[in-house]
Structure formats: C-alpha cells, structure tokens
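seq:
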Amino acid sequence: ASETTTEEKAKEDVVIGEHDTFICANARVHIVSNFLPINLAVKWRDQMVNAWDATSMSPGTCRNSDECDDNASTATDSWQYATNNDGTVRSFNNAKTRNLHNIKARNETAQTMRKKNLFSYSKWELEPTHPLVQEIEEAFASNEMRNRIINLLQPHHPKVLLATDLSDLFVTYYGGGDFLSKHNDGSSGTWAFVISLMDGAEGEWRADEYGGTLSFQCGRVVKPRFNSAVFFQSRLNNGSYGPIHEVLPVSWKAEADGYRRFGFTGWYSDVNDNMSDR
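struct:
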C-alpha cells in the first residue's frame, strides 16, 4: 500500500464544515464551522493557551492589582492588556494602550466609556512580534488560504478578489470583564474575518451565562465555538460600511467553568476597493 504524504494528509484535513449566511445592514455574514484543518486549529489554540497560562501566572501581570511596577513585563508575558484609554475617558481618541500597567483602572474606564456609548474595548492581545501571530499572518496571506476564502465567498460575491496582504490582524483573548463595544470595521479593510479557537470543557459556550457573543445590529449573535469562522464585508461596493457589531462583556463565570475565549480577527482589502477613495 502506498504511504500518505504530509502534503496529502494536510489536504485531507481541510474539510470545510457547515456554511450558514444571513444579511445584516445590506451585508452578508458567513458562518463556517470546522474552518481550519483540525490539527492546525488545535496547534494554534494550544499555543495561545500556553502563552496565556505563562502570562496569567506571572507575578508581574497585575491582573487583579491597581498598579504594576516598571519592571512588570517579563519574557513570559506574551499577552498584553489592550484598551483605547490610559485610565482616563477618551471621547474621540482611538489610540491603543497595550501593556501590563494600570489594568484595573483602565478596565473600569473602559466600562465607563461603554456605558456612555463611546467606542471602547477591554481585551488581551498577543504581542505582534510573537511567532504565532507571524505564523497566522503568513497562513492567511498565502495563496492557498486566500483562494479557499474566495471560493467560499464567490457564490454570493462573484467579484471578490482578496489582496495578497492582510490589512491588519490581532490574536485575542477576552476574559472576565472584557468586551468590544459597538462599531463597524470600515476603516480596517474590505473583508473582516473572526476565527474562534475557544478553549473549554465538553459542551458549548453558554451565551446566557457567559456573554462574550459576537452580536450584530440586526439581532443575530454568534457564540464562540472552537474552529468556527465568521466572514463579512466591512466596506461595501457602494462606499458604505458593513454591519455594526460588538463583543458582549464576558462573565467571570466562563473562565471559572473552564471556558476561555481565544481567537483572532483580521481584515483583507479587495483589489477593487481603493481605500484612499473613501
């Protein structure tokens, strides 16, 4: 009997699962289960978990403290706390603060900004220079991945043509008290994608208890689910922006019950979309 090569095995692992779509704000949202080859999804999830465990157990991260000292960040602290405030309310400034300082005050300020209907977020991001971030960027910029996504989208978007480089990408963890308030992604790229690599016990994420859903303005919600993908057009052909959406606050109960909301979000530009014209 002939042996199966590594390349052939990788191709066998690429089995796109159930594909669901719905319309929201004149844009079609695509939800795909089992999107990544399972071995790759597990590998990436485990690397996120290992980096997080190293960070969350480090005495310098101050996850439950008011202040960190100047030497708080260590070589093991690959995850950084990200907000668009520095501890004071910002009405119009979306400049990102990403470090391990003043975490409690920044989280409280983020919550205040959200209650005032100001754009705000509280989340954790893997350092952009981390090897996993670079590996994911390379994978999603590859011709193989772009062609897979184009083939997935083309039945509803026959003219889609993704650029060779990503507009941006974040590897994220949303823990207790973290969220992303209502916004659109029009300035980030033409096509948004959200890949869930939820780490958890047997069973599904219980949205009614844990929050943390990706919620769209049209009322549709997407629960975190391991190896699921969401794609939607963030900038439409007529120049308008795609659907307003948010990540609802995550309950501390999720992590206590053994569920952790890991994943990554990125954007492609379409070669027919000149961002400078918008």
